[in-house]
Amino acid sequence: MASVTASGIGSGLDITSIVSQLVNAERAPQENRLASKEALIQARLSAYGSLKSALTTFQSSLSSLKNAETFTKRSATSSDTSVFTATSTAAASAGTYSVQVEQLATKHKIASAAYADNAAVVGAGDLTFTQGTESFTVTIADGANSLQEIRDAINSAEDNTGVTANIVTDEDGAHLVFSSTNSGAENAIKVDVVESGATGLNQLAFDPNNASPMTEKAAALDSKIIVDGFTAYSASQKFEGMIEGVTIDVKKAEPGETFSLAVKLDTASVKKSIEGFVSSYNTLVTTLNDLTAYDSEANTAGLLQGDSATRSVANKIRQEMGTIVSGLGVELDSLAELGITTGDKGKIEIDSAKLTSVLDTDFANIAGVFSGDNGYATRLDSVIGNITAGGGILDNRTEGLKAQVERIAEQREALNIRVAAIEARYQAQFSALDTLLGQLNNTGTFLTQQLANLPGSVFKSN
Fold it and tell me: Among 36, 139, 236, 356, whose Cα sits 20 to 30 Å from the Cα of 158?
């Protein structure tokens, strides 16, 4: 036992140290008990959070499988993507098509004769631009009719239907160039001129069907493709509707060359979704196993081992996974029929070869297995939604644990109040003891002095 070295006023006792040790002896057992209890509750809250996260991840993997459109997608594959690419919708029929890209759409471009420079005066009047059924007119006034000013007037016209004006200078001089904003034959440019002042503006006239002062630098062409002997044109590089449900984007013209376009059921994306479903389910099972495991050799248990809520969650999920899909009227009505079976520790495994075979031979019926009213994805999504929803089994359990944490905080506050009272009592008791001992010491000293003064007293000093 440690010796007391500090002295009290009357007794020589270290009252502060004694009181502190007694108070700590009162506080420590209960404080440790509350701390251990709170640590366990916080760990279990974290465990429920991990379980909810695994459930949410698994639910996310169901989103594509519960959507019937996932099973109606088609893939469109070009034999040479540098020539054309293609996309398809559910409306497309599976098949192989021959495709020839004869020409690409181009933008119309016409140029004026050469002028000395940008400031060269051209003329005054009205320039009317026509593209197909649309037109707009730009008025060029005297004093604002240089090559540069005409260019700016055209580009700034509010009703411009799709004509861009530029000035290109070569060894001959400056040329005013008109270009269509959009490609295709329907966007060919026609320019009509009505002079009203200084002459020379008629040098900017252009008629694609007649000789004109301006020169055509690039013809307005449509893209042209031939599919299985049928020809189609497009003002852009995109062809929609030539093959129902298929959009073809041409990239490069290869006249006379034939390429293939294959439209197939998009089994690859469905297989990927099913593999994601299996992977996420196994992650969930691993989480459940870790949280509920018991190691008899180490005598340790998972944080939720024996927990009724966790056991209920596991049972609900496993029950849905083991229930066949009713009402389909076909043999394909279970995960096992797809090559998905239960393996070690409750996890599931895929027989990839069997799944591929089913996708290739019975693709139309796979949708019902997952996205139907009784499909796996539909049922599991509903079950998990109920489990993780506010007021659900996990929410109720975590709210109960949070309430326990709050009660522990209240118990700590009560403990602090009680310990403060105990400390005050000990302080008062030991202070009284110190005072009493001091009085006794003083009395003893006085008596010793009195006895020493008696005749023949043995208390007299020599």
Answer: 236
